[in-house]
Amino acid sequence: MPSKASNPTARATRQGNPLKEWTFLLALGVVCALIVASLFVGEYDVFADELGVGMFTITRIPRTLALVLSGAAMAMCGLVLQMLTQNRFVSPTTTGTTEWAGLGLLLVMIAWPEASIMTRMIGAIALSFVGTMVFFAFLRRVSLKSSLIVPIIGIMLGAVVSSISTFLALQTDKLQSLGIWFAGSFTSVYKGQYEVLWIVIAVLIAVFVCADRFTVAGLGEDMATSVGLNYQRLLFLGTGLVALATGVVTVVVGNLPFLGLIVPNMVSMIRGDDLRSNLPWVCVVGIGIVAACDLLARTIISPFEIPVSVILGLVGAVVFVYLIVRQRSHG
After folding, report:
1. Which of the pair, 181 or 216, is modelled with greater confidence?
2. Which residues cross the membrane (predicted)?
């Protein structure tokens, strides 16, 4: 007669692994400490006088909130793109999505120099969506003998778009503005300018709600169709969410290179490939990496500050090379 005693392993699975929960809380605590440090690191004493308190609310708090939202957004974008393409080398940096967003921003500024931040955001989002769909169209028509071909295609498309942007910027005397937009820095973030980043919260919620569908879509069109899902609709939805988040971050902060490549790979190496359970981890780790890089960028040559994209680019390039070597060593 089988025992009616419940299985401890199954019960633990249903209730959640306490060790994993404590690990997440520990990671969250470390990230919160970095965020608090970001609030108080700077060349002026925020509590010295009324001016310092005013600067704290006008620049420090908006800068830190922008750091949190943009870090979560770009890490999430990489996770969604990697799930839809089933390729660990895909991110907004290696698909050309960021370059397309920059082109959209530039076109709006050329056509309407006094455009509001909302108008610029719409232009960046629209071109991000178009560029990502162009990338997916290339993938459909190219025979992929290696997973390394996918980021090469994206980087190639991004280089072409970047060249077009540079040419247009030279012709319209906006090359300096283009360089500032792509610098990827939080120095120009202030109250009244960063608020559009709150859209990222809605995008994160939408990704979490659709996480299981995106996971199935990542298995291929045939698999998604066999379980009753509309593959093309999911592809458009995922691309739209990525374009929305990338466009908003590009307009407010600029380019944050390789963040969407580093974070999802770090998390999936430890936790596997489940999008729903990985999403909180990806957001927390993304925020932590951006916060750490930003603190380093603000202190390494203090009182001057280097763009956070410089630090992220160095870290991301090292991780990218490591992933390529790891892929080759595992066949």
Report:
1. 216
2. 21-41, 61-81, 93-112, 118-139, 148-170, 196-214, 234-259, 279-297, 304-325
